Structures are given as C-alpha cells and as structure tokens.
Amino acid sequence: MDPEAQERFEKVDLKLLEHDEKLYAHDKSLLAIRNLLGTGMRMLVEVETKMSALADSETRLYGSMQELRGTMEQLAEAQKRTDEALRRFLERSGNGHTS
Predict the structure, then answer these.
(1) Can you tell me the distance from the alpha carbon of 70 to that of 78, in angstroms, rounded to the nearest whole number?
(2) Mean pLDDT, to the nearest integer, of 86-99?
(3) Arithmetic mean of pLDDT over the chain
(4) In sequence order, what are the residues at sequence separation of 6 or more whose Cβ sits closer than 8 angstroms to the Cβ of residue 96?
(5) CA 27, CA 33: separation in Å to the nearest integer?
(6) Do 20 and 12 contact (CB within 8 A), yes or no?
(7) How far apart are CA 82 and CA 90, in angstroms?
(8) How many Å apart are CA 94 and CA 99, to the nearest integer?
(9) From the CB of residue 99, how many other CB atoms can be counted at a distance below 10 Å?
(10) How does 73-97 read in b/e, with b if 16+ C-beta sit within 10 Å?
(11) With pLDDT > 70 as the criterion, what percentage of the chain qualifies?
C-alpha cells in the first residue's frame, strides 16, 4: 500500500475510533437516563400508593369524626335532659329548704 493510501486509511481509522468513543459515551448517557427514569417511576408508584392509603385513611377519619359528632350531640341532649330533671327536682324539693 502506498504511503498516501496508508495515511488516508489511518485518518479514516482514527475518525472511526473517535466516532465509536462518542457512541460509547452516548450509550452510557442513555443508560444513565434510563436508570434515572426507572428510579423515578418506582418513586412515583410508591408515592401514588402512599397517597391512596392516605386518602383511605382520611375517609375513615372523616367517618369517625361524623360518628363522634353524632355521639356528642346525643350526649349534649342527654345533658340537657339531666339538667332539666335536676332543675325540676330542686324546684319540687324546695332547693334544700324544709317547709
């Protein structure tokens, strides 16, 4: 092979080597991006699962609060009846004074 052809061959070989190095770096970057996306997707699924559990918990808490509100209203009514009965009792008994 003549020296000029040899030089062109070496230049082409060097360019191919540089191109291969760029492709390798590009592939490495794509792999890093793919890993990052995979991690992000797993995190997203975890967050969605936790949000769903939190929504369920909030629904149960709201139901419990409604039940408690009903119980408190019943207690308030019972307290009113007790107060009224005590007031009537005290009025009939002379409020502790003998007649």
Answers:
(1) 12
(2) 77
(3) 92
(4) 90
(5) 10
(6) no
(7) 12
(8) 8
(9) 4
(10) eeeeeeeeeeeeeeeeeeeeeeeee
(11) 94
What is the average pLDDT across 67-91? 95
Q: Look at the block and give the residue holding tokens 């369920």.
A: 56
Per-residue pLDDT, 5: 87
Q: What is the pTM of this model?
A: 0.54
Among 66, 88, 86, 90, which Cα is nearest to 78's? 86
Residue that has been written with the tokens 């949000």 in this structure: 51
Structure tokens belonging to residue 87? 């007031």
**What is the Cα–Cα distance from 91 to 47, expressed in whole angstroms?**
64
- DSSP string covering the chain, please? --HHHHHHHHHHHHHHHHHHHHHHHHHHHHHHHHHHHHHHHHHHHHHHHHHHHHHHHHHHHHHHHHHHHHHHHHHHHHHHHHHHHHHHHHHHHTTT---
